[in-house]
Amino acid sequence: MRSNLPVTTVEQLFPVQQRLISATDTNGNISYVNDEFMRISGYSREELLGSPHNLVRHPDMPPA
Questions:
Q1: Angle at 50 (CA atoms; ends 5, 36), nearest 5 degrees
Q2: Which of 61, 49, 62 has the alpha carbon at shortest distance from 22?
Q3: Collapsing DSSP states into helix, strand and coil, what is residue 24?
Q4: Residue 14: CB atoms within 10 Å
Q5: Long-range Cβ contacts of 13-20 (<8 Å, 24+ apart)
Q6: Do 9 and 58 contact (CB within 8 A), yes or no?
Q7: Residue 28: partners with Cβ closer than 8 Å, 6 or more residues away
Q8: From residue 46, how far is each of 9, 34, 41, 42, 63 by CA, in Å?
Q9: Can you give the pTM of this predicted structure?
Q10: Cα angle value 50/45/59 (rounded, 5°)
Q11: pLDDT in tens, 14-62
């Protein structure tokens, strides 16, 4: 199981009109991210594409 650490205390702020968009395949692997999602996530597009979407889930968030 992924540990999704380390968690930082740095809050990421963005404008309310900005949209964070990602898409996954039927296995839950990331197949698309927009530039805003990539920037907020802290990962490069190459790191995100093909990775499980829970890569960006906070560890306190339940899997369901």
A1: 70
A2: 49
A3: strand
A4: 11
A5: 14/40
A6: no
A7: 52, 53, 54
A8: 25, 12, 12, 12, 24
A9: 0.78
A10: 70
A11: 899 999 999 999 999 999 999 999 998 889 999 999 999 988 887 777 7
CA 12 to chain centre: 12
For residue 64, the one-letter residue type is A
Per-residue tokens: 50? 């093909």
CA dihedral of 56, 57, 60, 61, whole degrees rounded to 10: 170
Contact 40, 55 (CB under 8 A): no
What's the rounded Cα separation, in Å, for the pair 15 and 56? 20
Tokens representing 2 are 């992924």
